TrEMBL record:
It comes from Lentibacillus amyloliquefaciens. Its cofactor is Mg(2+). Catalyzes the phosphorylation of ribose at O-5 in a reaction requiring ATP and magnesium. The resulting D-ribose-5-phosphate can then be used either for sythesis of nucleotides, histidine, and tryptophan, or as a component of the pentose phosphate pathway. This is Ribokinase. It is found in: Cytoplasm. Substrate binds at N10, I11, D12, G38, K39, G40, A41, N42, E139, D251. CDD domains: ribokinase. One of its GO terms (biological process) is D-ribose catabolic process. Signal peptide: none annotated. Pathway: Carbohydrate metabolism; D-tagatose 6-phosphate degradation; D-glyceraldehyde 3-phosphate and glycerone phosphate from D-tagatose 6-phosphate: step 1/2; Carbohydrate metabolism; D-ribose degradation; D-ribose 5-phosphate from beta-D-ribopyranose: step 2/2. Requires a divalent cation, most likely magnesium in vivo, as an electrophilic catalyst to aid phosphoryl group transfer. It is the chelate of the metal and the nucleotide that is the actual substrate. It catalyses: D-tagatofuranose 6-phosphate + ATP = D-tagatofuranose 1,6-bisphosphate + ADP + H(+); D-ribose + ATP = D-ribose 5-phosphate + ADP + H(+). The keyword tRNA-binding does not apply. Belongs to the carbohydrate kinase pfkB family. Belongs to the carbohydrate kinase PfkB family. LacC subfamily.
Length: 316
């Protein structure tokens, strides 16, 4: 069985610097890279590298960047059959700056991602027969995301909503989500609740429950995450690593969660696994290039003595 991802496909222009320039200031950076990215493509890559079949539904332009992105996805064994080539828009671009702490700022130009429409979704879903999980974000048009979620529910698929970025969120998507996985910024944007710790995370989870989503994973950055299931909850602690690049960590988490659910694990076990995948991702540069393989994750869990982050362990 497979995972289907509907979302963005971008080329990331990544600038590494010791510090961010102040407004109006010019400084010298250290390095620039042109890397495959986009939240949808990142998540599809994570699923594939973790050993699952995955369909990518998205849009790119008729340009060299689009060619490079297709090549990268295929290299990770992502099914690119349902990726559209836009006749009017160029491939999406993210301009990313990363400082010495591995934190990032990002400016995203949607480009061809805006050309992914409902008819593209309907055509793809008519051909996809064996997918169990749909994974969506909010970097493509809202009506496109909603249509994908509707069709997934009709097919009995489990729908994971990663409500990112905050600027693209639509509350209507909650009507079709089986689980939502917001970070602090996204939770505040949707609910007005600033998640500073477990208590405020639980407040957010209960608010989502009242809005119709019984399951949630409230991500708290260096404080870990809170997994909430119909009134029951568990705190998942963070895993300390030496951070290099935080871009794509949330996408690695989402892809790993989709893999766990496809394998029949509950969301607590899935969150332990996803936390390990996300932690390992931040140790490497590149939203997609830094995503670990399943063998790397298993080795990491073993080296760190993390008994609850390996889906092959009976202790999960």
């Amino acid at each position: 069985m497979s995972v289907t991802v509907v979302g963005s496909i971008n080329i990331d222009t990544v600038a590494l610097t010791d510090k961010y320039p102040e407004r109006g200031q010019t400084i010298f950076g250290n390095k620039i890279e042109y890397l495959p990215g986009g939240k949808g493509a990142n998540q599809a890559t994570a699923v594939a590298r973790l050993g699952k079949e995955v369909n990518m539904i998205g849009a790119i332009g008729h340009d060299l960047y689009g060619d490079k992105l297709i090549e990268s996805l295929q290299g990770s064994k992502v099914n690119t059959r349902f990726i559209k080539r836009s006749d009017s828009l160029s491939t999406g671009t993210a301009i990313i700056t990363i400082d010495h702490t591995a934190e990032n700022t990002m400016l995203v130009l949607k480009g061809a991602n805006e050309d992914l429409n409902k008819s593209d979704i309907e055509s793809a879903f008519n051909q996809i027969k064996d997918s169990e999980v749909l994974l969506v974000q909010m970097e493509v048009p809202q009506e496109t995301v909603i249509r994908a979620m509707q069709l997934a529910k009709e097919k009995g698929m489990y729908v994971i909503l990663d409500p990112a970025p905050a600027e693209g969120i639509t509350i209507k998507a909650l009507d079709y989500a089986d689980i939502i996985t917001p970070n602090r910024q996204e939770t505040y944007h949707m609910l007005g609740i600033d998640v500073l710790g477990i208590d405020s995370a639980l407040e957010a989870a209960k608010t989502f429950e009242n809005m119709g989503v019984k399951n949630s994973i409230i991500k708290m950055g260096d404080k870990g995450s809170v997994v909430y299931q119909s009134g029951n909850w568990e705190h998942i602690p963070p895993i300390a690593v030496k951070a290099v690049d935080s871009v794509g960590a949330g996408d690695a988490f989402a892809g790993a969660l989709a893999c766990a659910i496809t394998d029949g694990f509950d969301i607590v076990s899935g969150s332990h696994f996803a936390t390990a995948v996300g932690a390992l991702k931040v140790t490497k540069l590149g939203a997609q290039m830094g995503i670990p393989t399943i063998d790397e994750v298993e080795a990491f869990c073993s080296e760190q003595g993390l008994k609850h982050c390996n889906l092959n362990e009976s202790t999960v």
